[in-house]
Design goal:
The chain is α/β, with parallel strands linked by helices. It has helices at 36-42, 92-95, 136-139, 145-156, 170-181, 195-203, 232-239, 278-287, 305-313; strands at 2-3, 24-34, 53-54, 59-66, 78-81, 84-86, 106-107, 119-123, 128-129, 162-166, 185-190, 208-211, 220-225, 240-248, 269-272, 297-301, 320-324. It is globular. It binds zinc ion (2 copies).
Length: 331
């Protein structure tokens, strides 16, 4: 399913089978998660994507073939491909262990064709081993929603016992489970009137769920803003205690309105989380089965990728939307 131009629907296309280059794997796509970033790319909200482009950066694949120098995985191995597709290894950020900030990074489903397809190629150094026991659709959301959620949770701080989460989508539904397993209390803020999302948050262990325009019943130690809504930043600052951190976890957000300095005073911190490192992935994928994280997914066949994006845009997805090969049963 191809994005030819931002702002236009995806189109079904037949492309030549991709050939794995040096250190790349050819993968048969078993499942690919649908992430909000895909919507931002499709809508033209992010600069200079490769066009035409195959979206998708939560790929669960099976190794079909390996290019020159690729020896890490055997044919038939189950691997996960995340957003971080390649880094230079040489820039100041790479050398400082912050490859998520690499100046020349290339991203899956953005600079490199992604997983809204039957086959994909990926640099094996940026792939993760996945257990074959985990069903591909359930594993897919771990690869971005889970990883970025995990990095955001770390950024919120170990001391954040009372954790606010604004926007209860794919990442939030995973983070809530991890946070609860660590003894934190999760306060889930959902779209005003979205009672189903509030109930879903409570089912996943949130201590409280309410509307994003409501104040929490007690001050928070930190908050993560997953919704791409800039007005939530001052709202979240108002909800956190002195010394608290507000983490903006999305790649794109509407403008943040001006707000009184008093909201930031008291050593409150506003920060973003950008991309992931391979270390985030290794840590989170080791942690997830111990929680254990159980993802709620809605699967759609690949040919209905446009519908999956529309459902995500409308806030109709419970948990995460995942594309599966055409012909696989939908759920
Ligand atoms: Zn670099
Ligand atoms: Zn993503």
């Amino acid at each position: 399913m191809l994005l030819e131009t931002a702002g236009r629907p995806l189109v079904a296309a037949t492309l030549p089978d991709p050939a794995p280059g040096p250190q790349q794997l050819l993968l048969r796509v078993l499942a690919c998660g649908v992430c909000r970033t895909d919507l931002h790319v499709a809508d033209g909200e992010l600069p200079r994507p490769k066009l035409p482009l195959v979206l998708g950066h939560e790929i669960v694949g099976e190794v079909v073939a390996a290019g020159r120098g690729a020896h890490r995985f055997a044919a038939g191995a189950r691997v996960g491909v995340p957003w971080l597709g390649w880094t230079c290894g040489e820039c100041r950020h790479c050398r400082a262990g912050r490859e998520n900030l690499c100046e020349r990074a290339r991203f899956t489903g953005y600079d490199i064709d992604g997983g809204y397809a039957e086959y994909a190629v990926a640099d094996e150094r940026f792939c993760f081993a996945l257990p074959a026991t985990l069903a591909p659709p359930e594993a897919a959301p771990l690869l971005c929603a889970g990883l970025i959620g995990y990095r955001s949770l770390v950024a919120a701080g170990d001391g954040a016992e009372r954790l606010g989460i604004y926007g209860f989508g794919a990442a939030a539904h995973i983070v809530a489970q991890v946070a609860a397993s660590q003894g934190r209390r999760v306060f889930a803020f959902t779209r005003p009137g979205d009672d189903a999302a509030a109930r879903f948050a409570l089912e996943l262990g949130a201590a409280w769920a309410g509307s994003s325009d409501a104040a929490p019943p007690e001050p928070l130690d930190a908050a993560i803003v997953f919704a791409p809504v800039g007005t939530l930043v001052p709202t979240a600052l108002r909800a956190v205690e002195r010394g608290g951190t507000v983490v903006c976890a999305g790649i794109h957000m509407s403008d943040i309105p001006s707000f009184p300095y008093a909201l930031l005073w008291g050593e409150r911190v506003v920060r973003s989380v950008a991309n992931l490192t391979r270390r985030d992935g290794e840590e989170f994928l080791a942690l997830a089965p111990r929680v254990p994280v159980r993802t709620a997914v809605e699967t759609l066949p690949l040919r209905r990728a446009g519908e999956a994006l529309a459902r995500l845009r409308a806030g109709q997805v419970r948990g995460a939307a995942v594309l599966v090969p055409d012909g696989a049963p939908a759920a």
